[in-house]
Amino acid sequence: MRKSIFDIASASINISNEVDRIVSMSAKEKSTYSPPYDLTLFEFIDKCCFRDWSYRGHFVNVVDFLETVNYNEIKKDAKNGDTDAFMTLIELTYNFWNLAYRDIMDKDSQNGWNNNFFHLRDVMLDNLEKYNHKAYIENERILIIEDKPEVTAVVEIIEQDLAIDIIRYNHRSLQGEIELKKKILISLGSELEPKRKELQALNKQLSEDIFFMLNNLNVRHNNRSKKDIAKYKEHVAKMTKARLEKWYDELYQMMLLAFLLLDNVDRTASVKELKEKIVGG
Predict the structure, then answer these.
(1) What is the pLDDT of residues 173-225, one digit of tens each?
(2) What's the CA gap between 274 and 281, in Å, rounded?
(3) DSSP line for 247-272
(4) What is the sign of the dihedral through the CA atoms of 46, 52, 53 and 56?
(5) Beta partners for 143?
(6) pTM for the whole thing?
(7) CB-count exposure of residue 93 (10 Å: 0-12, 13-18, 19+)
């Protein structure tokens, strides 16, 4: 069967070409045309937004920021097929894009942006979908994480600060960062603790496993040091960092399931009431 030009174009998409497109649209091609500016996205951010960005930190300007995060190395690695680097490139670019878009909303200056500006967003979103990632927007910051339905489901039912922790746990930057993961697990455990009896009634094994792991896998307590012999666990002390991180990731998934089970209690009661009305009616 003959392929259309659109089939051919779709099949020819590769990561190197996508990197070139994103870099070109953000740092080379002009995105504004309102006088007195005729700027690329990066130039606009530097001139109009960067100094007021709450995540600016100590950086002087956009050039300082890009040099510090090794922007050129990120581009190079992404063009060579490194998916993590590609996601980082999109995350960086999307954060700048979002800053500009917020400026549009604040100043009602849509007419100052050409089609290149909005096409850049579409290209980034298409690539995120292709690689099974999604963008989470939190105030002035965007995080790109793997698109996991269970994460999305829990984020929608939990308070905001904890939701951000749940999102961050999946972020690429936390891979290997066992202490940061531990802090998030402690926060999730604190949220579950008051609901422990309720969880026990729903799934006794899950509840027991979660709190056993919290208390014996060097999360809440130092189970790797003989200084506190009462809490010392030889098997845990001998675990490699990679092995311990694997168990942390398992605990994280179990805790997500616990939150979903707890959220389902009211739903189950409503369905029961509905069934009784239907049968009784």
Answers:
(1) 898 999 999 999 999 999 999 999 999 999 999 999 999 999 999 999 999 98
(2) 10
(3) HHHHHHHHHHHHHHHHHHHHHHHHHH
(4) positive
(5) 136
(6) 0.74
(7) buried
